[in-house]
Amino acid sequence: MNPSAAPPAKPAELDPVLKPEQPEDLPLVDALVVRAFGPGRLAKAAERLREGSAPRYDLSRVAWAGGDAVGCVRMWPIHIGDAEAVLLGPFAVDDAWRSRGLGGQLIETACAAAARAGVGAVLLVGDAPYFLRFGFEQVPHGRAVMPGPVDGRRVLWRALAPGALDGVQGLVRAG
What we know:
By secondary structure, the chain is an alpha+beta fold. The chain is about 20% helix and about 30% strand. Strands 1, 2, 3, 4, 5, 6, 7, 8 and 9 form a nine-stranded mixed β-sheet that branches. The longest helix has 15 residues, at about 100-115. The radius of gyration is 16 Å and the shape is globular.
């Protein structure tokens, strides 16, 4: 598929298959992210944490349908103060696949993979009403300081193990 091509339509009988992202998936996943967020995504504070770093492909997930990438979630190694964690994002689902539960499947699958890998926490910058249903909560003021301007109401985290966020605080930096 041409990475700049229009998003695929969802055939009624086709269910997506979620797989770990592979480096060779990069053009298709990047095209999906561009369609979802446009060029403005590069100005966001979370992008500062991704620059010069590689995603955790073992934790990142891509939803495939008929050979097309129709959804994705990437996980990046970070530190919050001295604590190791992962940054969730970008997270995107093609318009034709929205409101079908695919986004939730991607988030839960990626978080489960992170928990199995021994990661204690996931941080993201996103829409609280959407992410709260997946166990994320707003980071208390000053506990996770992003490397640039960000609306503090959109900085969310989720413990993947009991007590994983106890005492965690500080500057968020690439890990």
